[in-house]
Target: Damage-control phosphatase ARMT1 family protein
Amino acid sequence: MPDTPTAPVILGNEPGSFPRSVLAERHPAIIQQVRDAFPYGPDQHRALDALLKNCTEGAIEPLPLDAPDHDQWAAWGTDSYAGHSWYDVPWLWSESYFYRQLLGAVGYFGPGSWQGIDPFRPFKRAELDAPETDEELAPLDALAAKSPEDRANSLLHGSLWGNRADLGFRLSAVGTESAAQAPVPALVADDSELLWSLLSGTGATLCLVADNAGRELIPDLLLLAHLLDQRRIERAVLHIKPHPYYVSDATTADVVDALHRLTGAPGAAATYGRTLWSAMADGRLAVRAHPFSCAPLPYADMPADLRAEFAAATLTIVKGDLNYRRLVGDRAWDPTTPFADVTAYFPGPVAALRTLKSDVITGLDARTEAALVAAEGQRWRTGGTHALIQVRA
Ligand SMILES: O=P(O)(O)OC[C@H]1O[C@](O)(CO)[C@@H](O)[C@@H]1O
Model:
């Protein structure tokens, strides 16, 4: 980004800031929710007590030497940050490490009988099984009568707004302002025409870097099903997380749950589900769980194999707030910094579909920013009531 002045990396230590509240309030609330959701034994309760104390008052500790990802995390930053307060290191890093430590506390990485048990699964399942999910699937029947373009646009917006509230957001009751109360513009940037133009050729491969499971993953999958069915893309690669992360982030198990939910639903939803099921079987839809998907680092630092995958794609769609922070760098950018400049390093065309749930923002025009500030002060940045579709071709 030669011509783009850089901006300070966001830390968690500014009093009264949103990042600080996530570290000081949201993380303890998440520990409590997880503790209440499982009949954990004394070892796990002790480990959760220790994590609670450490992440709010203590200093960062490296992973145990025998942890399977000890070396990985040493390279990702524990070597540099051990001994520092959680608040004084990049917020992206400390948040990510919190989830790693939470999994460690409940025995996710084993050995032992809790190995591989997703501590967020009850919340994800409850969302997937909720009647609201059926309500969101029902309009697919009426959508069948629309043109393929109208369907594509509706499903794109379904995927975008599916990101409205991740479970971490809801569990800690921050940002509960409803979208209906949002002042205009709800969509602060809309490059959807450019996005569709990138998928107008033949033989396209679309990478979709997923975010949350449940009511976000379902519309992501519906979008992929439609694009595959219409031959708007030949192949889709769905990037999910190799292990549970940020409460509701999608893993392979969540993809399987979502596909069961779709194929078992009434009406058109089941047809989408079957399209996806057979696309998985013949390789037109692949699922990838790259370790870097759970890295505490910006995508600018991605490893060569992942870079090559994105370089080979016709378009990569990056979903959600956290992925946006990683895509543009978790920095206090001037909101009018061009999106194309901060994503210039990305190895191929890239689109961000995100509802706004943290301070980072780029690519706004000055008028939009001024209108948002006039209406809401700075609340529009974190309330989850605004969204964007930004594309760099
Ligand atoms: O699920 P999403 O859209 O990535 O949102 C997660 C976001 O929630 C937070 O945990 C708090 O807003 C952010 O750190 C993160 O960016």
Observations:
- Residues 18-37 form the longest helix (20 residues).
- The two ends are 15 Å apart (CA to CA).
- Residues 22, 95, 163, 166, 168-169, 211-212, 246, 320-322, 325, 357-358 surround 6-O-phosphono-beta-D-fructofuranose (CB under 6 Å).
